[in-house]
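hey so i finally got around to running the thing on that chain from the lab meeting. sorry it took forever, my laptop kept dying and i had to restart like 3 times. anyway pasting the input first so we r on the same page abt which one it is
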Amino acid sequence: MPEQPGMNFATEGAPLHFVAFVHDVEPFVTPGALYMAVHLCPFVSFQNENTMPKIDVSKVAEILKKNHIEPAMLRKVMEEMNLAVQPDDGNDEKPPAIKKQFVVLISDPDGKMPKNDFVAWALQIPENESAATTLDRVYRSCYDFNATKKGRLMPVKTVGEAIETVPAKVFKEADIWVKTKTPVLVIKTNNEIPKE
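ok and heres what got predicted. didnt touch it at all, straight out
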């Protein structure tokens, strides 16, 4: 059943937050309120995302003036809209972002890993490729970098130097992406959660 002109289309408090996709809007004023006559407005539900187009406040003012809204009502509506679009005053400041680090966790249920501390780098390769090709990709990137002008001036001699020095562009050509330029600690676990 279509809505009658002058009715309130708000669905405040609805669990799914309905939004009307409007094809034709016709503003009109009654004593003490501004209403919009809406034509062809099927309601669509959305969650956490507003896909409605944004319109500038000055554009709304032009539309209202063009439709002969009385100046007092126009001024009141514009003041309310300007207040609504003002940014928050900063009372809702977020805490500073937590700095994070990578850690590599190795499962060693049989205790075969030595007790020494190790470091590692996090790398990515294409999903359909074998992990055994990773070192070849790093070596190929090193050879390509050492063939460049910068590489001839300061060639990389170790894998650690390569990962810290070789630009991402060179690694990308070998289909490898470095996620941690600096080495991260390797922690081992016996893969069991303590009962206590």
